Amino acid sequence: MTLLAQLTDTHVLDPRSDETRYVDNNGRLAEAVAAINAESPQPDVVLATGDLVNWGHQPEYDQLMMLLEPLQAPVLALPGNHDDRARIRDAFPSTPWADAEHASWLSQVGPVSVIGLDSTIPG
Fold it and tell me: Is residue 10 within 8 Å of 48, Cβ to Cβ?
């Protein structure tokens, strides 16, 4: 049996910014990571999909990586329209990116082929 977990639309913010939200995006991601880690059995992979950060800025990716670091399962990331392709590729170097222009990938997770298709339009 192959187990997948998914985190989506996390919209991580730079904790040093004065931007406010109706919800604590960063806190909710930390709670979701803890919940995934509490699962038994553990997922084989965590799919982190779309709008992982809110503005595509480097400090947000730094915060995202800090929040995801406790995950016990490997992470495959896929950008959304709020993400920056180059930065997401840099943040997740172990993701098997398909080519230099897109942030698409194909990964074998146990007997399951998982395909991440980048449909973002820069800008």
Answer: yes
102's tokens: 């897109």
Alpha carbons 13 and 24: distance in angstroms, whole number: 9
β-pair partners for 5: 46
Single-letter amino acid, residue 106: L
The helix or strand, by DSSP H or E, that contains position 55, with its residue range, turns out to be none
Q: Is the pLDDT of residue 2 over 80?
A: yes
Please check whether residue 73 is in contact with residue 107, taking contact to mean a CB–CB distance below 8 angstroms: no
What's the CA gap between 74 and 78, in Å, rounded?
Answer: 14
For 52-86, the pLDDT digits (tens) are 999 999 999 999 999 999 999 999 999 999 999 99
CB 15 within 8 A of CB 63: yes
The neighbouring-strand residues paired with 113 are 108
Question: pTM for the whole thing?
Answer: 0.94
Type of residue numbered 50: G
Decide if pLDDT at 18 tops 90. no
* Strand spans (E) along 12-104: 45-49, 75-78
